[in-house]
Target: Helix-turn-helix domain-containing protein
Amino acid sequence: MSKRTPLDLKQKWFVAQHWAQMDPPLTRASYAVLMRLLDRQNTKSGRCDPSAIGLAEETGFTERSVRSAFKELEERGAVKRYRAAKRSRNQFLIHSVEELGQIARLSELKSRSGRSSSMNSTSAQPAALFRSALKRSSPETIKETIKKKRSSERETVPNSRSLSEKHGASKTEMDLGEFEKRVVKVFEREGYGYEGLLSLPATEIEVIYGEMTKGVLSFSNAVGRLLKKYRSEVS
Model:
């Protein structure tokens, strides 16, 4: 889990009010555990990793109830849980109200893009699974491919508008859900984690995704802009 800016007192208050007014409400154990997690958050690193046994002693609920509360809080989206190793303690990222709104907007956009595109579903099996069924290319096919590539390199480069339109036809095949998955992998590889992506304004992600689907940006350029935006905000 990478470091994140801890919630300040005002943000914690908004989180408490948000979940106190939710319908359906959290269970008593889950709300009590969430309040203890807010209180236990490290004010410098943002880390929050109390044990289930310790929280049971502090809240008066059984350890089993506390662990059920962990599950409910994660399923409802109040927290994101990490574990560095199988026997290590849980580490919790508590979502602010702003982050909760952003997650909801991304989820809505993802479901909308899924409804509008019946092809290239993100749940489709990866092409790698069918690689063994592919026939080996013959030498003639390879030669033909090289010949076509050399021929295309000699052609005049099209104007920027036609290039964008050409790229746009292929970029629209990636829906928002697949885009988010691939961006998260890059953020995790850079050490920023999923919470790094969530710290960006939802409008920024929507604009960049929109430009990519229109062919204005490639995927690598889109991710580059998101990383640049994140780094400028945390520096």
About this structure: Strands lie at 79-82, 91-94.
